[in-house]
Amino acid sequence: MIETNNIGLVLEGGGMRGVFTCGVLDYFMDNNINFPYVIGVSAGACNGLSFISKQRGRAKFSNIDLLAKYKYIGLKHYIKKGNIMDFDLLFHEFPDNIIPYDYESYFASPSRFEMVTSNCLTGQAEYYEEKGNKERVIDIVKASSSLPILCPVTYVDDIPMLDGGICDSIPIERAIRQGYTKNVIVLTRNKGYRKESKDIKVPSFIYRKYPAMRQALSNRNSLYNGQLDLVDKLEEEGKVFVIRPQKPILVDRIEKDVDKLTDLYEQGYDCGKFIYDMSL
To answer: Rounded to the nearest 5 degrees, what angle is found at the Cα of 55, between the Cα atoms of 53 and 60?
Structure first.
């Protein structure tokens, strides 16, 4: 086993681009690489759950094999339920019946695991740990994965939430505040990627009840680019080890092409091998 001691693991989201992270984490599990603290956002939260429960291959199977079989992403779901993804299938049928989630192993894991959501009322990130209540685990990961506009608002403890990536896409600062001054960060974009610098004005009819969320969405581009700048700085200083795709990503956030997803997963697995080259 590779000892990571007081090193944290930070998992970016990115929708279906998260299959890159699936590959990285499967490599970690194949080589018994563990971390005392893991924090995940959106797809990173979903992948992190399977990593903490040590269900090697589960995330890949959910994101690629079951997508091909059940086609759980698409306009038909949005028209029928107001959600671009079939959340009933993803967060209930899958973990309960089709590819059962090992809650016992998750709850028993000595590793801390935080999932990031965005609070619609405050426009701020929320960080949740849950190691006892199955239903609350699902509420949190569902909220963390609820893409703005494409998915409905989801509730955690009766508080309206959306995708954690709106307010904290790369929660490296949270990991540092929790005492993990050295971290491995898994990104789902290649080095040098930046969003358009101009922020987007969100119309008032979108999330009318949640003005703070509209503001958070308007500021998202600059916030994300600032986080990428921080990651680059910490990487140069040797304070973080970054695992990222080595070339521009061709996979869309709601990608349905299984071949593209499989290729990205394999890229992630190969990039995960670089963990052996780092000095922990």
So the answer is: 125
Q: Which of 176, 202, 171 is nearest to 42 (CA)?
A: 171
Tens of pLDDT along 109-138? 999 999 999 999 999 999 999 999 999 999
Question: Could you tell me the sign of the dihedral formed by the alpha carbons of 144, 148, 150, 154, in that order?
Answer: positive
Convert the pLDDT of each residue in 208-241 to its tens digit.
999 999 999 999 999 999 999 999 999 999 999 9
4-14 tens-digit pLDDT? 678 999 999 99
- Residue 44 is predicted with a pLDDT of 98
Task: Write down the mean pLDDT value for the chain.
Answer: 94
Helix axes 19-30, 258-272, angle to 10 degrees: 40
Q: What values do phi and psi take at 41, rounded to 5?
A: -120, 130
Name the residue with tokens 């974009």: 189
Q: What angle do CA 238, 241, 245 make, to 5 degrees?
A: 135
How buried is 110 (Cβ within 10 angstroms: 0-12 exposed, 13-18 middle, 19+ buried)? exposed
- Residue at 103: amino acid letter: Y
Question: Do 151 and 140 touch, CB atoms closer than 8 A?
Answer: no
Q: Are 81 and 106 contacting, i.e. CB atoms less than 8 angstroms apart?
A: no
Residue with structure tokens 């909220």?
A: 143
Inform me whether the pLDDT recorded for 277 exceeds 80: no
Residue that the structure tokens 């959910």 belong to: 62
Lookup: tokens for 162? 């959306």
Run of H or E including 75: helix 75-81
Q: Which residue has the tokens 């890229």?
A: 267
Q: Which residues, listed in sequence order, are joined to residue 182 by a DSSP beta bridge?
A: 7
